[in-house]
Design a protein that fits this description.
Blueprint (H helix, E strand, L loop, with lengths): L7 H7 L13 E4 L16 E4 L4 E4 L5 E3 H9 L3 H9 L14 H6 L3 H6 L1 H6 L1 H27 L5 H16 L6 H10 L7 H20 L4 H22 L8 H14 L5
Antiparallel strand pairs: 1-2, 2-3, 3-4
Helix pairs in contact: 7-8, 7-9, 7-10, 7-11, 10-11, 10-12, 11-12
């Protein structure tokens, strides 16, 4: 029995997307974008385009694009391999984890073009690929956990908290890391003694960002978010200089770097 890719139109129907009635079933079928939701309150606008012949999708507003399997991955929250197995079954021979990374995941760690240009070279360096992926996952979970803590502990701002949590969930939804939001939420709801390394590091990152706010007398949520991103980036830079990823950077040095950097850089969240 030969398995074939699902129709992108069927996938869109399966997950309850809202279609533009007149374009339904045509080569270009339009519907509301579930990723950016910028057309949700605009009755006549449908930003997501489905190419029913080539099984591709693209949002003309947020630029999310890809093939039908990637489409279902983002709509379902499942991993790429889980979705692939729905239609093609499990691969009998066990594969190295580096081979199971999808193109989007490889792009995030800088290996997509290398695999495309030299597959044999990619096979030889699969352990390096896997190491880079694990480090990427760890760093993303650390940063997102710190952001989640800031939002979860926001006091006396219910509407702002709800808005930010919606933003955070969507950010996790489009992440190349499967079930990122579930991992962050489970760590937050679990016991502190059972925290994984990335959650413990994210907790300290959030606390450090708050200390920077206090030292710089710049106490608002946007500054807190910025401090988290700055501290994480500066920690990575210092780790590379020392060639020792496990060595901690002094808080005083980070405070000074954040203050100096924020004098010259303007970022809008």
């Amino acid at each position: 029995m030969i398995s074939v890719l699902p129709s992108i139109l069927d996938v869109a129907q399966k997950y309850g997307l809202t279609f533009h009635a007149k374009s339904y079933g045509r080569k270009e079928t339009l519907c509301k974008c579930p990723f950016c939701r910028e057309d949700a309150r605009k009755p006549k606008k449908h930003y997501l385009s489905l190419n029913t012949e080539d099984n591709l999708y693209k949002c003309w507003f947020c630029k999310e694009a890809g093939g039908v399997l990637d489409f279902e991955v983002k709509l379902s929250g499942k991993s790429f391999n889980a979705v692939k197995e729905q239609y093609f079954g499990k691969v009998r021979k066990s594969l190295h984890p580096a081979y199971q990374l999808n193109p989007y995941q490889l792009k995030c760690i800088g290996w997509q073009n290398y695999k495309r240009i030299s597959f044999n070279g990619f096979l030889q360096k699969r352990e390096h690929v896997l190491k880079d992926w694990k480090q990427f996952v760890h760093d993303e979970l650390v940063t997102h956990y710190a952001l989640f803590l800031c939002i979860a502990h926001l006091e006396n701002q219910n509407e702002r908290q709800k808005e930010l949590m919606t933003w955070f969930i969507r950010k996790c939804w489009t992440s190349p890391i499967p079930a990122m939001y579930d991992q962050v939420q489970n760590a937050f709801l679990g016991r502190y003694e059972d925290l994984k390394d990335w959650a413990a590091e994210g907790t300290e990152l959030g606390r450090s960002a708050w200390r920077v706010c206090l030292k710089t007398m710049d106490i608002d949520l946007d500054s807190l978010f910025l401090n988290i991103l700055f501290l994480k980036a500066l920690t990575k830079i210092d780790d590379k200089k020392r060639h020792n990823p496990k060595r901690k950077v002094s808080q005083k040095k980070l405070y000074n770097k954040v203050k100096d950097t924020k004098r010259h850089v303007k970022i809008q969240i």
